[in-house]
Design a protein that fits this description.
The structure is a homodimer.
Chain A: E1 2-8, H1 10-13, H2 20-31, E2 35-42, H3 46-59, E3 62-66, H4 77-84, E4 89-91, H5 93-105, H6 112-115, E5 119-121, E6 125-127, E7 136-141, E8 144-149, H7 153-171, E9 178-185, H8 189-195, H9 197-205, E10 209-215, E11 218-225, H10 232-245, E12 250-253, H11 258-268, E13 273-277, H12 283-289, E14 298-304, H13 307-314, H14 318-324, H15 329-343, E15 347-353, E16 368-374, E17 379-385, H16 390-409
Parallel strand pairs in A: 1-2, 1-3, 3-8, 13-14, 13-15
Antiparallel strand pairs in A: 4-5, 6-7, 7-8, 9-11, 9-12, 10-11, 15-16, 16-17
Helix pairs in contact in A: 2-7, 11-16
């Protein structure tokens, strides 16, 4: 079952909005065995929509269109589709009622412009939108399915999960495809390729495919099979070998994030954690708290961005700050040890680095970062020299810190 | 000058990686007057690459391809292009030298696999990659330009900025297009549309286009003209009217973020800021520090995620916590006032909310959030009821807090 995605919106072409919808759709559909053949991003112009639909319907069985269903005048998708399917717009009373309730429940006035949201092509199946006002639409033509969804990500996702995917699951004949991804932190792709040369060769000799997916601070390795579930065990074995070879880097498989894995380990070990952050300034704590119920193990943190607050809130020794500088093993150790006592937690993670673009010295280039983790009876410290980019340095510090505590928690 | 973008990679189709490259390319190229006609995302298969190239070259003057140039075996773009242009791979000595230095300078070993990165099609122009090992390539064929770049975002961006855009700027005859975007916080698109009905009609009567770009907590309004710079003043006037009509929501124009604007206002007013965070748990502080040189005004913060740390670090009254709960005006006020003293800052912003998916009560549904900002002589508090989603509730709290301090700093 071939699926193509059409993302409509000038804002996607001129880069004002990143196309996260297409990624999410790709992930959900391929999980269910659909073959995502192409993603087309086009402008919100009638002729572009029609041309792309014509062309895409030749190659795909299902076409999913997002965008252009909002209540404002720049939203043209519904009108273009009505014309394309030689249909007409009629009031859909259930939708009108739903849209009215949507505003009433939120104590918001019901506006004239919102009535338009209940005008729907006569011959389509209405896909209820519980998160917003524009319903989705399901058209069928010459054995093909065309689905139109709003572009607002959480509305699109809710309609997909509640209305579209259950219908597609009944229709789809899954292609024989299976893939699984291993996640590694703190090692670059060429080093993995070098170290795992024979392993990689063996993967290919088994007619499996290996893909490297590098991102800031992480490399994901996807092994996929065109024989579907037959290869599940073989792939498991390869991941087992990878884990044996790179235990300090291999942190998990699939979509689970490092923060989720660390969270689970903290719960399992019945431990609490806190942070004493300088260069990451709250990003590490926020990464912990991005996981629901993080309050079980995450208690709080101190962001001591200035040297004064390092002394005042974390009792860092003034002499150490003056002698070694804020980005030093001595200071980051004090931050972690004192932070642990102040926050009354089992582990305190401290970060101090030069994120850039300024603040560097001859001996401490931009990217120089110290991380310390204090536990009851010891402190582990590690120095990194990352790169020139502020955002990436912060991100790499957060991921490296999470991997350091992961290694402590698994006892290696 | 029509530009098409081809993004290569199964990881993009199956949603393992979000296509941020295409957005960035779209933004940089359209800024320079190029007309981004389409973005195609395809899998890393020879026939897909060739078919899409054939088809795209009929419609576009410039085609930019990203992905598939890495050092590992799953990277096929270079070989496919060499074949497509009936070229052959030869050693490019300058690149070999550069790749060797790249590893030497980082104290990393030079691997065999990296030599391949210096094998380049004979007839292309080599585009130096100062951030990584795979160089970009510039091909010309039948008056069209085809550019191949690595998929790693910062490598792609550096090659574009240093090697590609300067060349394209010389060639391009900009289309007559001008656009500017206004940014609003804390108001939904249908309310803007209702309130600004006459304004919107007047925009269209002036043959300008208006687009609504909603995202979590923000709506961006883009006005664009097909007469180019002729309409600059007219668009400025429309934005002036918008600002007059919605002063509490309108925070700026263009790409400047709310954190950047608040940062500039803090510098201008010579004020410092700190945070006392519960539900946002460091995200608000991290948003301040995402801006270079934030240390000028941002001093630090306290993340009191647990009630114990709210008492211990921020001296929140135990009775208030028990009587009103952590998510209450009383508690968030104490957090802000005490946080301001403890952090010795001019303004302290406190957040406390129920981000979800658990923690709600009958009187406090998920999404209930209090924000307080304490200054020398007063405290401003505001209650919000956001939505059901944890990540979006955190994000909306951060943006609402930044907009609240913005309004204080501009004196309204």
């Amino acid at each position: 079952m071939k699926v193509s995605i059409i993302s409509i919106g000038d804002e996607l072409l001129i880069g004002q909005t990143i196309n996260t919808n297409a990624s999410w759709l790709g992930a959900e559909l391929s999980k269910r065995g659909a073959d995502i053949s192409r993603i087309h991003t086009i402008s919100d112009q009638e002729n572009e929509i029609i041309q792309t639909l014509d062309c895409t319907l030749k190659r795909a069985d299902i076409v999913i269109i997002t965008g252009g269903l909002g209540p404002t005048q720049d939203d043209i998708t519904k009108n273009v589709l009505t014309k394309y399917f030689q249909d007409e717009l009629v009031i859909h009373h259930e939708t009108l009622e739903r849209v009215r309730n949507f505003f009433t429940q939120r104590n918001l006035p019901f506006l004239d412009v919102n009535i338009q949201q209940a005008m729907i092509p006569k011959n389509c199946i209405v896909l209820n939108n519980l998160e917003g006002t524009a319903p989705g639409m399901w058209f069928e033509k010459d054995g093909k399915i065309i689905i139109s969804l709003p572009g607002v990500p959480h509305e699109m996702k809710t309609i997909m999960l509640q209305e579209v995917l259950p219908r597609i699951e009944k229709i789809i004949s899954p292609i024989k495809y299976y893939s699984k991804t291993a996640n590694l932190q703190g090692i670059g792709e060429s080093y993995i390729a070098e170290k795992m040369k024979i392993w990689e060769q063996s993967i290919r000799e088994n007619n499996l495919e290996l893909a490297y997916l590098p991102s800031t601070g992480l490399v994901r390795l996807r092994i996929s099979s065109k024989k579907g579930n037959e290869d599940v065990e073989r792939i498991e074995n390869f991941f087992h070998e990878l884990q044996q070879a790179l235990p300090n880097n291999f942190y998990g498989v699939g979509d689970e994030t490092l923060a989720q894995i660390v969270g689970k380990l903290l719960i399992k070990n019945k431990c609490t954690v806190g942070t004493a952050e300088s260069c990451t300034a709250g990003d590490l704590a926020a990464e912990f708290v991005s996981i629901p119920n993080a309050s079980t193990y995450f208690k709080g943190g101190i962001i001591s961005y200035s040297n004064e607050l390092k002394q005042q809130l974390l009792h860092v020794n003034k002499n150490n700050l003056e002698t070694y500088g804020a980005v030093s093993e001595q200071v980051v150790t004090e931050m972690a040890v004192n932070g642990r006592n102040i926050l009354s937690v089992d582990y305190c993670i401290a970060t101090s680095g030069i994120a850039g673009p300024t603040g560097n010295t001859t001996s401490k280039p931009i990217g120089t970062t110290w991380i310390a983790i204090a536990s009851k009876d010891k402190v582990i410290t590690k120095k990194f020299v990352f790169e020139q980019n502020r955002q990436r340095n912060i991100r790499r510090t957060v991921l490296s810190a999470l991997n350091m505590i992961r290694l402590i928690l698994v006892g290696s």
